[in-house]
Amino acid sequence: MQHLDYAYASSIIRTFMNDESLVLTIRGRKYTPEFSFSVNNFKITTKSVQTEVDAGYEGKNQVVLVEAKNSKSSNTIIRQLFYPYKQWKQYTKQDVKCLFFEKRGDIFYIWEFIFNDENDYNSILLSRSARYKIKCQ
Predict the structure, then answer these.
(1) Residue 120 has pLDDT above 90, yes or no
(2) pLDDT tens column, 13-37
(3) Which 8-state DSSP code applies to residue 26?
(4) Which residue from 21, 35, 52, 67 could staple onto 60, CB 3.0 to 4.6 Å apart?
């Protein structure tokens, strides 16, 4: 979390999202409301599943949810992005964005993922990515 907080304090998150209005307001575990979605043409309905958001930032027009890792990940399950996404889509009328964040050495990596169909688990796509290095002078 400290790396994610440092990235926010250094304006990396606001710069990546091109949104100076973002403020850290979401963090921790919550339980989902009921929602349905499809996976390979199978409909699934779920309720009260525990989710965790490493950091969530609210701005004037969007909510940005971040899943963070402290080292290079070889794989991550879509659920870690999809369930909080579905959850917050019910909590707000603003756009909900999903970021995956990693710190490797002194480089901060950010990937933004979108769901082409918010009701289809497998509709995830990489929208854009960037990497940042902070130089202290």
Answers:
(1) yes
(2) 999 999 999 999 999 999 999 999 9
(3) E
(4) 21
Whole-model pTM: value is 0.93
> How many CA atoms lie less than 13 Å away from 43 in the CB half-sphere?
3
Model confidence at 128: pLDDT above 90: yes
DSSP letter, residue 70: S
Cα distance between residue 25 and residue 38, in whole Å: 30
Burial of residue 3 (number of CB atoms within 10 Å: 0-12, 13-18, 19+): middle
Tokens of 77: 């399950």
Indicate the helix (H) or strand (E) that contains 63: strand 62-69
Alpha carbon distance 108, 134 (integer Å): 9
Assess whether pLDDT exceeds 80 at residue 136. Answer: no
What end-to-end distance do the CA atoms of the chain give, in Å? 24
Domain map of the chain by residue range?
2-133
List, in sequence order, every residue forming a beta bridge with 39; answer none if it has no partner: 42
Q: How far apart are CA 119 and CA 115, in angstroms?
A: 8
Q: Per-residue pLDDT for 137 more than 70? A: no
